[in-house]
Structure formats: C-alpha cells, structure tokens
Specification:
With 124 residues, the protein is mostly beta strands. It has a single domain, classed as Pnp Oxidase, Chain A (Roll). It is 6% helix and 52% strand. The chain is built from 1 helix and 9 strands, in the order ββββαβββββ. Strands 1, 2, 3, 4, 5, 6, 7, 8 and 9 form a 9-stranded antiparallel beta sheet that branches. A hairpin with a 5-residue loop joins strand 1 and strand 2. The chain is elongated, with a radius of gyration of 17 Å.
C-alpha cells in the first residue's frame, strides 16, 4: 500500500507500507526511526491507498477498483515487546472504494465517514 504522511515542513511524503487488521483494528508497522514513523509521531494525519491493478484491455469492467483510507495514527506501545519498531493503529476518519459500474461507462464511488455514514456516487 502507499502511505501519505506530512513532513515537518507540511509537504507530503509517500512511502510503501503494509497494513494489517489486528483484533478488528487497522494497524501499520514501521522500521525503528523511519521517516514515515517520525512523521506520524509529529503529525498523526495519514492517507492510505491500496495497490491498483489495470483491467484487461478488452474488459474495462473487470477492474477490481481501489480503496483509500484517511485517519489518524495512534502509536501502539507494547512494553513487553522489547523491540524498537513503530506500530500504529489507525483511527479511521474516511474510507472510499472506487469501482467500475455496470455497464462499464461510469465509476461507482462508495465512501464512509463517521458523521455521514455510507454514501454512493456515480461519476461519468
């Protein structure tokens, strides 16, 4: 996945990362002292984007879509772990899933926000 964080000067940084669901929580793990971890410790805002796979050229409707998550990183401190890696859970503030509609002449964007719930939009 691609993680977007904010550098000290406020400019964006993107980094590759892996995400896991642990006990129902979206979590991220990072190497000790990594710039993306230091970004999140300073400013917890983040965006996460799933990998995108191109559809077959002869079937644009076969695109599986992509997902985006926005939220705030909360450091997970595990005194017993004994390692210096950085782990965060994500307090999700927004989720969006984009797919191709049927027929494949439009996009379908499903988004969720805690205050608005689930919304679906079509885009030509």
């Amino acid at each position: 996945m691609t993680l977007a964080t904010l550098r000290r000067d406020g400019s964006p940084r993107i980094s590759g990362t892996e995400a896991q669901i642990v006990e129902g929580e979206l979590t991220l793990g990072m190497m000790p002292g990594s710039l993306k971890a230091l970004d999140l410790l300073r400013d917890p805002r983040l965006a996460l984007h799933s990998p995108t796979v191109d559809p077959p050229p002869d079937d644009p409707g076969a695109w599986v879509g992509d997902a985006k998550v926005a939220g705030l990183a909360v450091e997970i401190v595990d005194e017993e772990a004994g390692d210096s890696s950085h782990r965060f859970r994500v307090d999700i503030t927004e989720v969006a899933m984009t797919t191709v509609g049927s027929p494949a002449d439009h996009l379908v964007i499903e988004s969720w926000h805690p205050a608005r719930g689930l919304e679906t939009r079509r885009r030509q």
